[in-house]
Each structure stands twice: as C-alpha cells, then as structure tokens.
Amino acid sequence: MAAAYTLYGSFLSAPTYKVGLMLSLCGLSFDYRHVDLAKGEHKTPEFLELNRYGQVPVLRHGEYTLCQSNSILEYLSEQTGKFGGATVLERQNIREWLFWESDRLEPWFNRTRFFERFAKNDPAVMEYCRNIAEIGLGVLNTLLDGKRFLVGERPTFADIALFGVVVHMAEAKFDPAHWPHTRAWWERMMALPGFQLPYDLLPKADRNA
Ligand SMILES: N[C@@H](CCC(=O)N[C@@H](CS)C(=O)NCC(=O)O)C(=O)O
Fold first, then answer.
1. Residues forming CATH 3.40.30.10 domain(s) in the chain
2. pLDDT tens-digit profile of 76-101?
3. 191 CA → ligand 1 middle, Å
4. CA distances from 122 to 115, 126, 182 (A)
5. Domain 5-82+195-201 bears CATH identifier 3.40.30.10
C-alpha cells in the first residue's frame, strides 16, 4: 500500500532534507522519488506540473501537492500537531525565523556549499556569498546563546528548517568551532528521536515506505 506521503527530492538537496527530517522526527513513513537535478529532471513538463518553480522538494499528500520546504514544514506541523508553537507569539517567532533564514542564511550558505562541493565560481562571487553566510551564522550563534532551541524550550519546525541548512557546514567549508552555541544546539537536534543525517535519511533512488 502506498504511504500517505510522497517526497520528491534529491539526497544532495538541503531543502529536501528539511522535509525528510520533519517526516522522520514526526514518525511518518514516506515514499520517496529521486529527482536527478544533474539530468534536469526538475525542469521536465511532468515535474513542472508538480512544482511550477522547477525545484525540489515536492511533497504529495492525498489531494495536495506542496512545494517550498519551509511552507511544507508548517503544513506537516499542522497535520501532526508536532513541532509547532504553543502560543501566538511562538508561532510568529517560528515564522520570523523562517523568513530570516530564507533571506539571510539559506541562499548564501547553500551557494557557498554549491561552490565548494560542486562547481567553483568567480572568487569575488564566492567571497561575497561566504561573507554574508558567515554573518548569518554569527547571528544564529549569538541568538542561540543560553537557549536550548530557537523558540522556547522545545524544538519547533524552525529548528528543523535551520538545521537542514547548517548541517552541511563541513561541505561548505565552515568550521563549526567558530560557532559553539550552534554546535551545542546541533547536538541537541541529533539527540531527538527519529533524527537522521542527510545521507542516511535520503535515498539515492526511488523507495517505497
Ligand atoms: N526555497 C526553496 C528552495 C528549493 C531549492 O533551491 N531547491 C534546489 C535544490 S537544493 C533546486 O531545485 N534547484 C534547481 C533550480 O532551482 O533550478 C525551498 O525551500 O524549497
């Protein structure tokens, strides 16, 4: 029998990992469809039917076909009642983190990772992206000082969204030793039941639950 959830993505993709991690931490099994970005499978007419932006991840659940990882995390939190905020302020705080991440961290961090792992670019472009990512990592580290998780005492899907990016610190050639509060939070994330690292969690081929 098909699982209720089908995740389309790539094992190399941080946004795919965010969604996979959320599903895993919620104890939800899912079918997986590998999308080969190198072959351009995300730009085929069939895939553009699933995601008009031509990007992974996509999550299918019943009649819904969803894209944009942070938005999918919010959906899964609503569906499961897990990893959400307990109050209006906590829910706003989660959204605040997600918007900040999409603006100040994810694009710069992931481009830096891309340059280091897959294809070098003009050194000035690489340095520009790395510098902004480092400022973002500094903000994250400072705001984690004295806190167990980003919002309150419990993990929320804001933690899952941010973790899904910074987990690739080594591939982006950022030294975790520079950000000790982030490193300590990282350990707390890894201790959560159902936690898996990206390459353990995401298959390299289609898989049914
Ligand atoms: N904001 C999007 C970003 C998704 C994204 O950048 N996906 C990358 C893979 S990590 C992708 O599909 N890139 C191909 C492209 O943009 O053409 C999300 O969070 O889902």
1. 5-82+195-201
2. 999 999 999 999 999 999 999 999 99
3. 28
4. 9, 6, 29
5. yes
